[in-house]
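Attaching the record inline, Q. Sequence:
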Amino acid sequence: MNLELSNKQFRRLLDLVYIGNWILNSTRGDQRFADYDEVESLVFGQAILEGMPALAELYQGEIVPSRAFVEGGIHEAIAEYENNVFFDILAEDLARRDMDDAPIDESNYAELTSRIDAYIAEFEQHGTDNILVDIDT
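Structure, as predicted:
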């Protein structure tokens, strides 16, 4: 397979490959999806051949994203995504809880979205400051 990319497009592909593999494998410990690690290694190996050697390095016999790549801001993008997804998931979970986890259909979909929107507005204004948990001791 041949794929023609400009240097800028290839650099963006490195970001996409890293982010994708991070999402799939970062929480898996020893049970990583090795085939995704292999693809990442192939793509970052190509970075060396394409005149971007600072973006890849050899680690335990495998080509991996370099420390410079990993520390170069990619995790800020991942953190921003995680932050947004966190609040979206939390808002939906709380809205469904408020509706006693009723199955959602056209009769209650508007209520669900209204509740989600209310939680999102709260989180945008106050973050999690107003979330409290009563713990009986």
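Residues 7-65 form one domain. The first strand starts at residue 56 and ends at 59.

More tomorrow.
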